[in-house]
Amino acid sequence: MGSITALLDGFATAAQPLYLLYALLGVTLGTAVGVLPGIGPAMTVALLLPLTYTLEPTAALIIFAGIYYGGMYGGSTTSILLNTPGESSSIVTALEGNKMARAGKGAAALATAAIGSFVAGTIATVLLTALAPTIADLAVTLGPADYFALMVVAFTTVAALLGSSPVRGLASLGLGLFIGLIGVDTLSGQSRFTLGIPTLADGVDVVVVAVGVFAVGEAIYVASRLRHGPVEVIPVGGKWATREFWARSWKPWLRGTAIGFPIGTVPAGGADVSTFLSYAAEKKLSKRPEEFGKGAIEGVAGPEAANNAAAAGVLVPLLTLGLPTTATAAVIVAAFQSYGIQPGPLLFSNNSAMVWALIASLYIGNVMLLVLNLPLVKIWVKVLQIPRPYLYAGILLFAALGTYAVNFVVEDLIVLLVIGVIGFFMRRHGYPVAPLVVGMILGPMAEEQLRRTLQISEGDLSALVASPFAAVAYGVLAVLLAVAVVLRLRRRKTEKEVTAV
């Protein structure tokens, strides 16, 4: 009953006209960004992060949550009409949805993606509402060794599972840990890796790193691969809802939700893995397997539902444990920290009103997104016609202005450029950028918990695994890695089948 009462209070807050406006702004920006190929939710949240400092925390986080959900919705439009997935989680949608659009069924493909996203997002948010307080209550009892174990789990899984190579993921994580250590050591008061530059004595601002890696790095990378000429957009054709549409879509929506949410809650590959598993499941269960690869509506409905369910699942470890398991989640943690708020077990007790308003806004934003995506799809198609040079020039301009506005220090712009160039080369050579941000955010926290554990145990290293929870966490880590290997192998098998088709 306590959670229901808190959620109702959250709805009372989120339903205020000003917060409704912020939610609408967030989902609109997220959808617009998701529609544009090459720009994802992580980049948008990072770009807007410095520009929301004048807002109160609740308003800013409602905007970011709207962008997160909206970006997942909007990505289907690009995949279906342009055959250009904005993110890897939209690859399967592009495969079947684009074939449907070319066959004159674009409206049905867009509709099943939008409604499936709504169904999955709503069910997953209900599960988030039910699970989050319980996990938070359990996490309050954890000690320093337990927290360190959780962070080791986050480090290992995020680094090993994101990107094409675990070695590259670990290298990206190591770079992030190094950046997180720059500054003055709080325990000894000694400067670390500052190179004698006074600006670095306070450390590198996480906002500068997030904007540099996601916005500047991505803009330079896309510019280096920019293709000239007009963009070919397939017209939206056909009826969006028929009796056959509902009959063939509702089961894949539910199955996609059941696959996506559990995978999203654990660091086991996130939306990427869940969409491929959903596609494989739909192909195996379909009564018309011959249509797959030629425009099967189940191949759009299931993966899109899995994609959005996984997005809600990611918020469970983020809000309850403070562990980001995706790139966007890492930037949202940076948003929390920019307001002096640390997501984790105490979030539900110290900032109860804010977190429940945030969860309530997810329900409201989901309804807004359904309204925005079904009747206004032709408007989003127009967004695809924005010339890329203008778009990315604007991104770089806002990135520079936003970064300078954080501290009004010119040196931050130099750091922004350096981080942006690093982000560009990481993308170019296949290094995932999410582990870098996760390492920078969680690195100092892990160091603090490690030192606290060793101080309490007087240097006894066995204290790191003496706690039952820590021992279980390391055991779960081993299981997760094994499961991840199996899931990755299944994904590769599905990819080969998709390529063959």
What does the model show?
This protein is mostly helical and 501 residues long. The chain has one domain (2-500). The chain has helices at 2-14, 17-35, 41-48, 57-82, 91-102, 106-139, 144-161, 166-181, 206-224, 243-265, 270-285, 298-321, 327-338, 347-350, 352-373, 377-383, 388-407, 410-428, 434-456, 463-466, 468-500, and strands at residues 183-184, 191-192. Helix 4 (57-82) runs parallel beside helix 15 (352-373), helix 6 packs parallel to helix 10 (243-265) and helix 6 (106-139) runs antiparallel to helix 15.
Key words describing this protein structure:
501 residues, transmembrane helix, mainly alpha, 21 helices, transmembrane, globular, Tripartite tricarboxylate transporter TctA, 2 strands, two-stranded antiparallel sheet, DUF112_TM
Short description:
Keywords: Membrane, Transmembrane, Transmembrane helix. The chain contains 21 helices and two strands.
Individual helix count? 21
Unreliable segments (pLDDT under 50, ≥5 consecutive)?
A: none
Q: What's the β-strand tally?
A: 2
Radius of gyration: 22 Å
Cα end-to-end separation: 51 Å
Number of domains: 1
Biggest pleated-sheet summary:
2 strands, antiparallel
Helical percent range?
Answer: over 70%
Report the principal-axis shape: globular
Strand content: under 5%
Mean pLDDT: 80
Helix and strand pattern: HHHHHHHHEEHHHHHHHHHHHHH
Q: Label the structural class.
A: mainly alpha
